[in-house]
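Box S2. Input/output pair 1.
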Amino acid sequence: MTYRKKPDWLRMPERGSEEAARIRSVLRRYSLDTVCRQAMCPNLGHCFQRGTATFLILGGVCTRNCRYCAIEHAEGALPPPDPDEPVRLAMASAEMGLSYVVVTSVTRDDLEDGGAGHFAATVRALRHRIEGILIEVLTPDFRGSAGALETIAGSGPDVFNHNLETVRRLFPAVRPEADYAMSLAVLEAYGKLSPGTPLKSGLMLGLGETEDEVTDALKELRESGASMLTLGQYLQPSRRHWPVSRYLTPPEFSEWKERALSMGFHTVASGPLVRSSFHAETDFTAQNAPSGPSIL
């Protein structure tokens, strides 16, 4: 596979600054990883300079091998969850001065609960360490396990995020070990378990989807209860990954934002460099503002 040349609007932000260096130092000291680094996020420098990061728990190796993702894949048993990780993550968050924390993970199909208990322990550790902390969890699908979702809901995160990633037609090829309908069902099921918790999801654009297919996916996300949405440009991590079909222009992303808002989403972050946790705290504030579109 070959790369398509990136357009000017996909220039990556600079990574240097004293604040970015401080964040890296804290992460090293507490032996923590971030999806920013593992998934080769183009916003790593931007977010580190703002004093934020998206924590990656349950190790840096995934049991699935999605064709778009840069995170390392391995088959068979992986090391068990680190029982001290939730406390270290909470301590690091306090030192970083975070008021909003995003926690995500690799997929751990090798674990009986898919890692749900570790997510819950992390949420509880953050609540114990930082008064008033707001927590967003970005989870795998747990193979649709009701028990895993109940465990997450019982810990009480402020936002539940599960990404659809792509449209129905492309899903089996791009995410061969996952299931489109299951991802929608996960969002719907969590909404029933925790009715007051905002549901969030996201799509990558530029994998070969059509306009109608994106519209259909957005409709299905709304029907599943999602009220927060992220739309970003897919970037091919390497030549062995799924190729970029095309690069959408910034005006196209702005148009998709307006369409999504007209469909009933409360908050939409849409742009070439937008990712799941990009300016997540700002979106949460907008989601909970007293004015704005009503929920369908």
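Box S3. Input/output pair 2.
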Amino acid sequence: MDKIKNLSLKKTVVLYMGISLFICFYLSAVIVKMAGNIQNHIWWKYADHEKYYEIAEGGNERYLRDVPRPHSYEMKRLDYHVSEVCDFLQTYSILLLSVAGNTIAVFLFYKHKLKNPIKELELASQKISQNNLDFHISYENRDEMGRLCLEYERMREQLAQNNQQLWKTIEEEKALRAAIAHDIRSPLSVLEGYQEMLSEYLPKKEIDMDQALDMVKESRKQIERMDLFVETMRKMSSLDARALVAEEITNKQLETDIRAELTVLEKKFEKKCGLNCMETEEKFAGDKEVILEVVENLLSNAFRYARIKVEITVFLTCWELQIRVKDDGVGFTAEKQKATELFYQQNMKDSLKHTGIGMYISRLYCEKHGGQLLIENEEQNGAVITAVFRRIA
């Protein structure tokens, strides 16, 4: 039964029509035979029996099979009408039954092969038009309509994913606007306060030169903070438009680039970092600039929160690149996944020097590269972040 249900539409039509025509021809033969017998029975009542048997004894078998048809005026009215009906059935029964059989076959074909999937697709179209994507198309036959329903279900899933991504983008844009308002307003307020104080007290010489220089110095820090924020916004605006450029990456090349970055960070933060690159001759295809930017973000974050040491492990194959960064700090005190959200900052003091989007950009770059950013806390102490990149063509 399942095999018949999963037949293609063309084969199902041929099957239904073939069965219909077979039944119609069989019933037509039966009806023609019965009509002929009824007709012979009526005609026999008006035949010359003695002459019939005389001819039969003479060996005329054809006359035995075919009872002679009497004239219409010789038959009773009822017998005449019955005989005419038998003539009609013998002539047109096959035509009438064929039309009826094909009609039934078409009806059954529609009921079993088209009705349910069309109903499912109509209902799905109505729900999609109402922006309701919380449903599933349940038609499971593996025919053309089943494949169409499957493609419709895939389209629904893609629309749902797009909607989720759209809402996520909207929420991130809201957070971005709020961050812009906050991060621009704060340094501007500080600068405005310093300007008012200098304008009021400097002409009256009610403030000494050291205090004035301190205000100027603090003003410069706020300007640097605004410059950092503007540069961050520039990166954010160009992130989606950034196209990946595949190039060949070897283990030794990656180790050299990371060590160069470590030299700068170790001197800046006065902390040590151990680098462990698994030896391999395999080559990875990826966007080197993107990968190194993610590494820089992860290392900067790790050096800021590490107490003494940072460890980085690189595992490279031809299909995947994993970069694991571990620090010996306190780890993530809040929900770990929030660390990759926009403008997340575990320590509010960092807001003077860091905008809180490094981990967010790293996650987006990993996902754009076909991978992901994994975050966890070490059992004893410290945070572990693993950037996973998939090979690109």
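Caption for Box S3: The radius of gyration is 44 Å. The first strand starts at residue 247 and ends at 250.
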